[in-house]
Amino acid sequence: GDPGTDTLRTPIVAVLGHVDHGKTSLLDKVRGSAVIEGEAGAITQHIGATAVPLDVISDIAGSLVDPTDFDLPGLLFIDTPGHHSFTTLRSRGGALADIAILVVDVNDGFQPQTIEALDILKRTQTPFVVAANKVDTLPGWNPVEDAPIQQSMETQSDRVQQQLNQELYEIVGELSDHGFSADMYWQVRNFQQNVGVVPVSAMTGEGVPDLLTVMMGLAQRYMKEEMQVDVGGPGVGTVLEVKEEKGFGTTVDIVLYDGTIRADDVIVVGGENNPIVTEVRALLQPRPLAEIRTESRFEQVDEVMAAAGIKVAAPDLDEAMSGAPIRVVRDRPVEEVEREVRSE
Ligand code: GTP
Ligand code: MG
Question: Residue 4's pLDDT is what?
Fold first, then answer.
């Protein structure tokens, strides 16, 4: 059916931060899967996308959220590489984001790509929170699996609490040095004016309920108007990767960030030389909670609404490029859409 204009778009959450600070691990914890185990040298080298439905967020967040407070369909998480050589991919992730999580290793503090990520968020004016990750590695930490962070902090010894607070206030200080007023998330009233810091562990799950609650709240409170777009309109997206898929030939993994794409749409994709005009042969949707980058089982669907990670099979995609725009033509002159794609 036609999704119409009263359907809210899924917000896109970019996960940014220095190499090894735990971006993929945090998403693994939310997915309940282990994507990093499949990564060469455990270094992320591509942008990923994972759709997390509202009911999963509510399950993880537990008592911290009331799901009836939310009418957004969930969150689409974009994983980015932290290694210094992937600046372009970080910028692309930042450009896609409605909101973001800046992951900082609580022991390691701010590092070069933390600052680079911060600059991207500043430039794109993306509201974000800081996940102060790896709290479980503080000496003497007593893990409370999957607990809300304040609950877990109360059970720590005075010495551990002091150590944690010291590390957290160093992060707050670094943020302030870069022009952001920040505080522990439970002290923050307005998440657009102040950056909330959420202590977490991707390993033990502590603080993950808090992180999801804050992201959902941030999206619901400040992004809702921007999410009230015409998701029934012609789809617009970005190519993440160009890949061979058995039985489908060359396909593109995309993040659809606006509108709708249908299985019979004519599309224009940015190519090495000229925009490629082609017709969708199949839309292949990853399972809920699956990372599109590593997914092997896709469901063929007739229609996908933003925001979503989706694999598009179509003829003539050999010259498509990662990072290129993709646009659905629908009822417009194809030349007009080609011009749009060329100018992006
Ligand atoms: P890049 O994608 O390469 O930028 O790294 P990343 O930020 O995705 O880091 P990743 O999730 O791959 O984690 C790096 C290492 O830190 C892995 O060995 C993880 O197991 C470990 N790690 C991540 N989060 C935690 C945590 O909360 N606690 C502990 N103890 N280890 C963690
Ligand atoms: Mg990673």
Answer: 45
State whether the beta carbon of 201 lies less than 6 angstroms from ligand 1: yes
C-alpha Rg value of the chain to the nearest Å: 20
Which atom of ligand 1 is least distant from the CA of 135? Answer: 27
Q: How far is Cα 118 from Cα 192, in angstroms, rounded to an integer? A: 15
d(CA 321, CA 238): 10
Query: 25-36: buried (b, 16+ CB within 10 Å) or exposed (e) per residue?
Result: bbbbbbbebebb
* Residues having C-beta closer than 5 Å to ion ligand 2: 23-24, 44
ipTM over 0.95: yes
Phi, psi of 272 (to 5 degrees): -60, -40
Closest CA to 74 of 288, 310, 295: 288
- Alpha carbons 337 and 275: distance in angstroms, whole number: 9
Q: pLDDT digit string (tens) for 65-86?
A: 887 888 889 999 999 999 999 9
CA 283, chain centre distance (Å)? 21
Give the mean pLDDT of the chain. Answer: 93
Q: pTM (2 decimals)?
A: 0.95
Residues placed in the known binding site for GTP? 17-24, 79-83, 133-136
- Return d(Cα 292, Cα 47) in angstroms, integer: 9
**Cβ distance 216 to 70 under 8 Å?**
yes
Handedness of CA 87, 90, 95, 100 (dihedral sign): negative
Q: pLDDT, tens digit, for every residue of 282-292?
A: 999 999 999 99
CA dihedral 273, 277, 282, 286 (to 10 degrees): 50
pLDDT, one tens digit per residue, over 163-189 is 999 999 999 999 999 999 999 999 999
